[in-house]
Specification:
Blueprint: E1 2-8, E2 11-20, H1 25-36, E3 42-53, H2 55-71, E4 74-78, H3 82-90, H4 93-96
Parallel strand pairs: 2-3, 3-4
Antiparallel strand pairs: 1-2
Helix pairs in contact: 1-2
């Protein structure tokens, strides 16, 4: 998984590329740390270039949502396609993280 964080005004976008799996746990937590240290009001996880997400990846999205709720910022997920969109819909995370 690769990612870049883009910030414009109070909006932050994390653009992901590759697969989001258990092996990306440390990198994902780094993203959450960077978001916690910034003045995020709204964050969008752009999953357009993500080919696969496993159960650990879905769990990481839940951790991000919990962090957002606790810190008072909004988290949305966009761009999910194919397998990723199916997994988000199957687990109802698409409703929880709707943009």
């Amino acid at each position: 998984m690769e990612y870049r964080i883009e910030t414009e005004d109070d909006n932050t976008k994390v653009v992901f590329k590759g697969d989001i799996t258990f092996s990306e746990n440390v990198s994902f937590r780094q993203i959450l740390k960077e978001l916690a240290e910034s003045s995020v009001k709204t964050c969008i996880f752009d999953l357009t270039d993500v080919g696969m997400v496993d159960s650990a990846g879905l769990g990481m999205f839940l951790i991000a949502k919990e962090q957002a709720d606790t810190a008072g910022w909004k988290l949305n997920v966009t761009g999910a396609q194919g397998h990723v969109a199916s997994m988000l819909k199957l687990t109802k995370l698409s409703e929880l993280l709707a943009g």
